[in-house]
């Protein structure tokens, strides 16, 4: 069963200056226990996609349309905001980019995790030894599970940290708290939106290891949003490459790193620093991402692509499905591959 299935997702934002087409008809599928990464530059629509899947975008101003939105076989496309409150935290959770903003500054981190168990954890009863129901103190049980969750993500002195406020914790520790909150009720799907951007490299590695370890232990599906392909190399099973609101390439991780097909993917991979790199300089993709209100005609990447032809400048390529579920949106990918041999 698929943990997530999204069909033809579109998100636009009407503004006084024009229409911002943030996401343009993308499909995403994630199997249970699988990690799928959505990668691309800032502004390509990754975070908007994750918020649309969580149904956290305010409508208005956003206009969100999709043909299908299912989580673990449950149709949530037409659920109301009140109904989604029962889904978030229990069936799907999100690890946000900025933990200090995501956490309530006037509540201790322990109380904030308690609220998740109290809302979704069914803590009012425990099974007795002889199959009988035994009443328990729900708040004490919530606290016990919260401390266990804090220990699970590697927070030392969990009993002491339970009483701490977000500003009293380091950035890495706050991010661990968000991960503990996300995994608290064993959801089917975790969405992690740039979970390590604000952290230094050493702490990044620790947080990613915790995220990967918990995902494997609980067999949870993970949607990882990032602009850094080096992060997903050892985490993702499948990668969606996104550019200007469209999926331009999809492949399993090994195939993508061994044989990228789209020029944009090649540029992203070329910008990764490697220990065995003998080029002596970084590969840089020319220019920058176009404005979402003034996207070019034809293929959106053609102004930055060294392989662009007249057809690329006039006509948007369709997303072509290849073998093993691999997809590519490029008119010239076969010629580019042959030229590189």
Map the helices and strands.
Blueprint: E1 2-15, E2 18-31, E3 35-39, H1 46-54, E4 63-65, E5 68-71, E6 74-75, H2 81-87, E7 92-95, H3 99-102, H4 109-120, E8 125-127, E9 133-135, H5 138-152, H6 158-161, H7 171-183, E10 189-193, H8 201-218, E11 221-226, H9 229-232, E12 238-243, E13 246-252, H10 253-258, H11 263-270, H12 310-314, E14 320-321, E15 327-328, H13 333-340
Helix pairs in contact: 4-5, 5-7, 7-8
Structure, described:
- With 341 residues, the chain is an alpha/beta fold.
- The chain is built from 13 helices and 15 strands.
- It has helices at 46-54, 81-87, 99-102, 109-120, 138-152, 158-161, 171-183, 201-218, 229-232, 253-258, 263-270, 310-314, 333-340, and strands at 2-15, 18-31, 35-39, 63-65, 68-71, 74-75, 92-95, 125-127, 133-135, 189-193, 221-226, 238-243, 246-252, 320-321, 327-328.
- Strands 7-10-11-3-12-13-15-14 form an eight-stranded mixed sheet, with helices on both faces. Strands 1, 2, 4, 5 and 6 form a five-stranded antiparallel sheet that branches. A two-stranded antiparallel sheet has the order 8-9.
- The two termini are 39 Å apart.
- Residues 125-133 have low confidence and may be disordered.
Helical content stands at: 25-40%
Spans of 5+ residues with little confidence (pLDDT < 50)? 125-133
Class from secondary-structure proportions: alpha/beta
Mean pLDDT: 89
Largest sheet: 8 strands, mixed
Distance between the termini: 39 Å
Number of helices: 13
User: What sequence of helices (H) and strands (E) makes up the elements?
Assistant: EEEHEEEHEHHEEHHHEHEHEEHHHEEH
């Amino acid at each position: 069963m698929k943990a997530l299935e999204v069909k033809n997702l579109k998100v636009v934002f009407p503004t006084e200056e024009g229409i911002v087409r943030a996401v343009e008809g993308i499909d995403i599928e994630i199997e249970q226990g699988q990690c799928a990464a959505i990668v691309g530059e800032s502004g390509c629509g990754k975070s908007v996609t994750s918020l649309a899947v969580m149904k956290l975008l305010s409508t208005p101003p956003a206009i969100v349309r999709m043909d299908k939105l299912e989580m673990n076989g449950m149709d949530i496309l037409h659920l109301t905001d009140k109904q989604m409150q029962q889904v978030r935290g229990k069936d799907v959770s999100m690890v946000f980019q900025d933990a200090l903003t995501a956490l309530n500054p006037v509540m201790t981190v322990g109380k904030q995790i308690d609220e998740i168990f109290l809302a979704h954890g069914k803590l009012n009863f425990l099974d007795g030894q002889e199959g009988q129901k035994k009443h328990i103190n729900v708040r004490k049980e919530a606290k016990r599970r919260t401390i266990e969750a804090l220990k699970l993500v590697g927070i030392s002195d969990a009993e002491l940290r339970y009483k701490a406020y977000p500003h009293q914790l380091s950035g890495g520790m706050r991010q661990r708290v968000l991960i503990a909150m996300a995994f608290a009720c064993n959801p089917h799907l975790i969405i992690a939106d740039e979970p390590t951007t604000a952290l230094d490299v050493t702490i990044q590695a620790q947080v990613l290891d915790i995220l990967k370890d918990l995902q494997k232990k609980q067999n949870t599906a993970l949607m990882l949003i990032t602009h850094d392909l080096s992060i997903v190399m050892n985490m993702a099973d499948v990668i969606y490459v996104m550019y200007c609101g469209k999926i331009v390439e999809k492949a399993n991780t090994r195939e993508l790193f061994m044989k990228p097909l789209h020029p944009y993917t090649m540029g992203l991979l070329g910008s990764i620093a490697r220990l065995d790199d003998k080029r002596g300089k970084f590969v840089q993709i020319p220019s920058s991402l176009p404005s979402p209100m003034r996207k070019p005609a034809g293929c959106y990447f053609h102004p930055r692509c060294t392989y662009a032809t007249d057809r690329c400048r006039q006509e948007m390529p369709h997303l072509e499905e290849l073998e093993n579920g691999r997809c590519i949106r490029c008119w010239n990918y076969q010629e580019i591959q042959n030229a590189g041999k």
